[in-house]
Amino acid sequence: MLSKVFATIAVAITGSILLYGVSDFPAFGDPHSPANAGVPGSESVSLYFIEESYKDTKVPNIVTSVLADYRGYDTMFETVVIFAAGMAIFAILRVVGNKEETAAKAAEEDSFTNGDHNRIIVGTTVRIVVPVIQLFALYVVAHGHHSPGGGFQGGVILGASFIIIALAENLNAALRRLSELNYVRLAAIGIFIYAAFGIMAQVLGSNFLDYGALQPIFMTDGPEMARSHSMLGVEIGVAFTVTAIMFAIYANLASRGQLVKGL
Amino acid sequence: MIFAFDIIILVFLVVAALISLNVKDLLSASMIYGIYGFLICLLWAEMGAVDVAFTEASVGAGVSTVLLVATVFNTRRRSSD
């Protein structure tokens, strides 16, 4: 009881100090605040991105151009982090062996073979909705450098479309569409696509992930459009990895690493 | 920035966070955590950070709720030891 009183007092004091600090903040969206414009002597890079990123890359969505081009190295290893998270899930949860027995049991309990009519409405709805979700996910990936979206969001939506199949029918139905071997391959291919853009730029005599050097490959007028096309390419790579790992994490969590039946 | 909209979202946000922390049932807690994620998504969209809001809607409110529910379904109250 006493510790609760002390904790409440500590929280109240910390909260009031934080609120007092907030009153000194610059106004919301102030372009001349230190975070946006920097201080005299060390100007911030945000103004450069706002003014020059469209001229540099011909990509209207500044967020995507910063994420996939100016900070492409950072994003590449973010994708590697997601891949590593998926591998950690495999290492912790995946159970190998004893599979024939559990698979036979799962086939016995398959809702569509033994006529579980409660799932007909859900199953039919999902069958109608899933193509729309997947089409939207592909649009989010393909249009990510012109509107909000990109590889991470599109990949998560695409992965969610497989999860929704697993939720509505069972895990085996989703694994028939994206098997374990295929999603591990997909996750690795995604990172390879991203790294390939970097290495191609190196081969053509520029820095790693300097997309402007890819102009001869894309046969564009200037390096700007090459950067725009390369951003789409690396977003596709990110989407591959994220799709595969999102579904892999769900499949391993829901089936306790057995990859049969699921929830 | 619409002030009234901000206040409504922030009040619901605090309420959702408190309920999600205090409710005893883990399944309800994870569902309310999904509501919390969706409210944060609304807040970001309203502040003009559409890309972040999009990510929060798909990851925070969508997939992570599903992952939490999947985990809750695989837990039991009693230990099997």
Q: Can you put this structure into words, describing what you see?
A:
The complex is a heterodimer of chains A (263) and B (81). Chain A folds into 2 domains: 44 residues; 195 residues, no CATH class. Helix content of chain A is 71%, strand content 2%. In chain A, a hairpin with a 2-residue loop joins strand 1 and strand 2. In chain A, helix 8 runs parallel beside helix 12. About 2% of the residues of chain A have low confidence. Chain B has a domain of 53 residues. Chain B is elongated, with a radius of gyration of 15 Å. The model of chain B has no long low-confidence stretch (mean pLDDT 87). Chain B is 80% helix and 0% strand. Chain B is built from 3 helices and no strands. Classes of the chains: A mainly alpha (263), B mainly alpha (81). The interface between A and B is medium-sized, with 24 and 18 residues.
Q: Structural class given helices, strands, pairing of chain B?
A: mainly alpha
Gross geometry of chain B: elongated
- Look at the structure and give the mean pLDDT of chain B: 87
Could you tell me the radius of gyration of chain B in angstroms?
15 Å
Average of the residue pLDDT scores of chain A? 86
The residue fraction in helices of chain B comes out at over 70%
Helix fraction bin of chain A: over 70%
Low-confidence stretches of chain B: none
Given the helix and strand composition of chain A, which structural class is it? Answer: mainly alpha
Task: State the distance separating the first and last CA atoms of chain A.
Answer: 41 Å
**Number of β-strand runs of chain A:** 2
List the secondary-structure elements of chain A in sequence, H or E: HHEEHHHHHHHHHH
User: Strand content of the residues of chain B, in percent?
Assistant: under 5%
